[in-house]
Design brief:
By secondary structure, the protein is α+β, with helices and mostly antiparallel strands. The protein has a single domain, classed as 3-Layer(aba) Sandwich (Glutaredoxin), CATH 3.40.30. It has 3 helices and 4 strands; from the N terminus they run E-H-H-E-E-E-H. It has a 4-stranded mixed sheet. A hairpin with a 5-residue loop joins strand 3 and strand 4. The radius of gyration is 12 Å and the shape is globular. The two termini are 12 Å apart.
Length: 80
């Protein structure tokens, strides 16, 4: 599974690096290093909300640092 996090100007200002840090911490804590690849990306086209992320080729969604853990918990359930 590949998760792309936008690091473009708008998302950077909205906290993309905080989202990345939270995602990295979750991946490490749950030993998902072999399953999840975290990548940065420039504009994913949904700049009006929070930080834009995309899982594989799914729709681009908005993510805040506070939502990362809940999002990842739901994502991991779908994969298992």
């Amino acid at each position: 599974m590949e998760i792309k996090v936008c690091i473009g100007s708008a998302c950077h200002l909205k906290g993309s690096y905080d989202v990345i840090k939270k995602l990295q911490a979750y991946i490490t804590k749950h030993q998902l290093d072999q399953t999840v690849t975290l990548k940065s990306s420039f504009c994913l086209g949904k700049c009006s909300d929070a930080v834009s992320i995309q899982v594989d080729t799914d729709d681009v969604i908005s993510m805040t640092p506070e939502n990362v853990e809940n999002f990842m918990n739901q994502l991991v359930k779908k994969v298992k």
